[in-house]
């Protein structure tokens, strides 16, 4: 799962549950039967138009002329197509799906790669931007003879979207506080969040519905088979597509893998372990190696004690912020966990913990805060509370659509098992073992969700009937832990697993790892798979980050776009480029 926001209680999952997969011998799938797609939908044409407009000059947000479009952006088109709201009733109400296409640089595409950033529910219409060039700004090999296709799944972004009415309850509550009254508040907030996110449209925001939207898109693109690059929850979506439409699956790459044999509820129990491992093994070791700069401790244990001391102080007495409100312990949890996705976030987290340690110390706090919140603490608070800027606006497009879609998919796809009381007990057990996010699993809205009756069922991914998939996975991935990837690998016949050792970043292809880029390009471009499972070792954190004094970004050909730097992470890179050049909604 791509995005972690502990403040929204999205990861309250328990291991050990098994989904009710649709058996291979089940009755014919109504969406696969001949003639199910109405003639009007099958014959529709996507009205492609440029995603970007060449700036006239002098209209930039900062009063300066916006940058000229790089050549590849002139090849990127956007459009929409109509799909059934409910694929069990394809002749009924329709919804609109937003899609983009970066046309092959050669002008002669040999196929199309659909790219999904995960979430589930993350907007993906800007994703082709991350793969148009290599890390030096030169045209990429991937985009030479292949069309690169991005899209917003139903429920999110520029597609017909859903909302939780912009509400989230219980964000300031401390999930570690297990006094009866606080537990009641946490559960009441989870129940309110479930109610806020339920809607008539949300009932049809499921993986089973989305894979049929994708197959309709395949047909409209004129492709007999589609290739796939899916990150995080995009691995779950890709595996489901191949299970439902194996004859239309081409070369599939699954990067940072969910456990497709289990449930969303089971994944976040595993996530508690993954985030704890990444924090306790990777971040603390690196911060301790640079104690001279950050002063968090000279060993992993000391750095962890520093974090826990800061957290305890904030839990007891939240820090006041400029403009009102407080910095709570739950905010610190979410901030620290979100930094685990990428090593490039480690220096900023360490520096912010240094600041927070200074202002939560018993001896210095009263005088340090006596005249108001210091500027450096205010900057920390701003980063901790930073909200992502919306990509789109307009009718039926909502600022909170990604969270709403995440909630709908994870709650609709697989059944939440066990009682609320049992979930409270399990979250306490997980928290004791994996404190960074384990306690927060108490807040899962799915325990109060009413799944739609008679919904399209998921298929059991086996890999049979489809080409083999290439799986890419780091050993210390926090959001989709390695153990789940191994289970997926065993389940998918013929799959190849590329393991990246000494690495914990979530999302590896096109992030600067040569061994990954080489293997993925070989398969997506030329259909060449590794002969068997393979592995490589990433550079050490110290060799990449140093002491963190350099900005936690890498150049990645940024000068070619008139930017000082770009994120190493391809999904973040796509978002920066889309905003910089003004992707039209």
Automatic annotation (TrEMBL):
Q: Out of the domains of life, which is the source?
A: Bacteria
This entry's Gene Ontology molecular function terms read:
hydrolase activity
The Peptidase S33 tripeptidyl aminopeptidase-like C-terminal domain covers which part of the protein?
435-536
Keywords noted in UniProt: Hydrolase, Signal
Every AB hydrolase-1 domain range:
112-296
Specify the species.
Actinomadura parmotrematis
Q: What InterPro entries would the database entry show?
A: AB_hydrolase_1 (IPR000073), AB_hydrolase_fold (IPR029058), Pept_S33_TAP-like_C (IPR013595), Serine_prot/Carboxylest_S33 (IPR051601)
> Is Translocase set as a keyword in this record?
no
Similarity section: Belongs to the peptidase S33 family.
- Segments forming a coiled coil: none
Q: Which residues form the signal peptide?
A: 1-20
**What name has this protein been given in UniProt?**
Alpha/beta hydrolase
Q: Which SUPFAM superfamilies match?
A: alpha/beta-Hydrolases (SSF53474)
């Amino acid at each position: 799962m791509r995005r972690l926001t502990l403040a929204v209680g999205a990861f309250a999952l328990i291991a050990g549950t098994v989904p009710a997969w649709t058996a291979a011998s089940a009755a014919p799938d109504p969406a696969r039967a001949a003639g199910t797609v109405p003639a009007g939908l099958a014959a529709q044409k996507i009205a492609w138009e440029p995603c970007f407009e060449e700036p006239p000059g002098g209209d930039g947000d900062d009063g300066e002329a916006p940058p000229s479009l790089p050549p590849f952006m002139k090849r990127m088109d956007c459009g929409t197509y109509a799909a059934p709201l409910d694929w069990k009733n394809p002749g009924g109400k329709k919804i609109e799906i937003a899609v983009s296409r970066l046309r092959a640089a050669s002008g002669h595409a040999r196929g199309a790669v659909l790219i999904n950033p995960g979430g589930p529910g993350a907007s993906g219409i800007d994703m082709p931007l991350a793969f148009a060039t290599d890390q030096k700004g030169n045209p990429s090999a991937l985009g030479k003879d292949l069309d690169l296709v991005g899209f917003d799944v139903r429920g999110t972004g520029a597609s017909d979207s859903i909302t939780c009415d912009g509400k989230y309850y219980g964000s300031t509550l401390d999930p570690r506080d297990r006094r009866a009254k606080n537990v009641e508040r946490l559960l009441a907030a989870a129940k309110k969040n479930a109610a806020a996110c339920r809607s008539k449209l949300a009932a049809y925001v499921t993986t089973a519905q989305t894979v049929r939207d994708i197959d309709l898109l395949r047909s409209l693109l004129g492709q007999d088979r589609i290739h796939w690059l899916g990150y995080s929850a995009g691995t779950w979506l890709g595996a489901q597509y191949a299970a439902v439409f194996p004859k239309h699956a081409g070369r599939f790459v699954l990067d940072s893998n969910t456990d497709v044999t289990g449930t969303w509820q089971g994944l976040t129990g595993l996530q508690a372990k993954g985030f704890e491992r990444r924090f306790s093994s990777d971040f603390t070791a690196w911060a301790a190696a640079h104690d001279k700069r950050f002063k968090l401790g000279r060993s992993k244990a000391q750095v962890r004690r520093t974090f826990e001391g800061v957290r305890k102080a904030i839990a007891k007495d939240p820090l006041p912020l400029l403009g009102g409100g407080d910095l709570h312990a739950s905010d610190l949890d979410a901030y620290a966990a979100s930094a685990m996705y990428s090593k490039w976030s480690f220096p900023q987290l360490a520096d912010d913990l240094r600041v927070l340690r200074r202002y939560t110390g018993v001896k210095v706090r009263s005088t340090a805060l006596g005249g108001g919140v210091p500027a450096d603490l205010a900057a920390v608070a701003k980063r901790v509370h930073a909200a992502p800027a919306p990509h789109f606006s307009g009718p039926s497009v909502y600022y909170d659509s990604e969270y709403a879609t995440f909630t709908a998919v994870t709650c609709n796809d697989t059944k939440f098992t066990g009682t609320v009381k049992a979930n409270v007990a399990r979250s306490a057990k997980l928290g004791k073992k994996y404190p960074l996010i384990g306690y927060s699993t108490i807040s899962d809205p799915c325990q109060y969700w009413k799944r739609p009756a008679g919904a399209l069922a998921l298929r059991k991914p086996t890999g049979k009937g489809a080409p083999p998939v290439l799986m890419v996975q780091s050993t210390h991935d926090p959001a989709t832990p390695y153990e789940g990837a191994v289970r997926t690998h065993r389940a998918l016949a013929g799959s190849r697993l590329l393991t990246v050792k000494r690495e914990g970043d979530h999302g590896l292809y096109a992030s600067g790892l040569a061994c990954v880029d080489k293997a993925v390009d070989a398969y997506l471009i030329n259909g060449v798979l590794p002969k068997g499972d393979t592995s490589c070792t990433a550079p050490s954190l110290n060799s990449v980050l140093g002491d963190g004094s350099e900005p936690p970004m890498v150049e990645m050909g940024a000068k070619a776009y008139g930017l000082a730097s770009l994120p190493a992470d391809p999904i973040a890179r796509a978002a920066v480029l889309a905003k910089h050049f003004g992707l039209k909604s």
